[in-house]
């Protein structure tokens, strides 16, 4: 499924196998073309990957990167923005929250995490998340030039591309790119399909509302931020995951179950084999904050420390060995 997919109507996407490696960082992008005009939706997690993607788009459309004069960043995460420098000639549209997020978590932060990782399971997990083939060295992503404060419409030849703000959901500044004439939506990470959604921001109910908004649109083709091209079924699956996790977390919160225990106690069922299942740690952390009326804070270091053993157990389970009884390493 890797590579360019051309829908034949001026909408294309570039897909990466979302569950390879650790299942983190393998995102999709989109390209909307009309005549000699084009809008790129998102770059990839590093410049090598983004360069390859742009070459693939050139082979498919004849348009080189320099011919694409508009880029939309759906949100701030590095797997959607760290290739921005290869589009430095372009106008870059994103929400103000997206710009803030890129500034807050530059590639150097991840490179630092990688270089200073501890020995053992936590360090191994960090290496899986941020080590090769990803390369963050020397990357200085171009920041958005045009801040989208209200929903707006871009014009690409005769096509309209609607930029619809739906954050805070996955991140504080999520935005959809909808091509109504082609009944196509590029969702960024508002839709994860066959790869586990991660609730960096929330509130969770707002993410669910964003998915309901997509479901209300007259669209047929859904290009998710992670996973294969889908339709409204993929949107419903993302929603099912969030609704399920929210309900299961709520029961345990109300029963006074500590978060470390709740993380181990929730059976993921059909979502168990979606890549990045350890993101339940981040998701429950946000949900417990929401339920407790606390300002949600994601201490990334403690999230990593909790995710690493969860991911290790999931890997062993997939490999067929019997899972050991979970031990909490929660730093809370
Ligand atoms: Zn992503």
Structure description:
By secondary structure, the protein is an alpha/beta fold. The protein has a single domain (3-319), classed as Ribonuclease Z/Hydroxyacylglutathione hydrolase-like (Metallo-beta-lactamase, Chain A, 4-Layer Sandwich), CATH 3.60.15.10. Helices cover 37% and strands 18% of the residues. The strands form two sheets. A seven-stranded mixed β-sheet has the order 1-2-3-4-5-6-7. Strand 10 and strand 11 (184-192) form a beta hairpin. It is globular and about 60 Å long. The chain starts with a strand and ends in a 13-residue tail after the last helix. Zinc ion binds at residues 27, 77, 79-80, 189, 225-226.
Short description:
InterPro entries: Metallo-B-lactamas, NDM-1-like, RibonucZ/Hydroxyglut_hydro. This is Metallo-beta-lactamase domain-containing protein. The chain has 332 residues and is an alpha/beta fold.
What overall geometry do the principal axes of the alpha carbons give?
A: globular
Query: How do the SSEs run, as a string of H and E?
Result: EEEEHEHEHHHEEEEEHEHHHH
Instruction: Please describe the biggest sheet, giving its number of strands, its sense, and whether it closes into a barrel.
Output: 7 strands, mixed
- Contiguous low-pLDDT stretches (5 residues minimum) are 322-332
Strand order of the largest sheet: 1-2-3-4-5-6-7
Protein name: Metallo-beta-lactamase domain-containing protein
Domain Metallo-beta-lactamase: 26-226
Family: Belongs to the metallo-beta-lactamase superfamily. Class-B beta-lactamase family.
InterPro entries: Metallo-B-lactamas, NDM-1-like, RibonucZ/Hydroxyglut_hydro
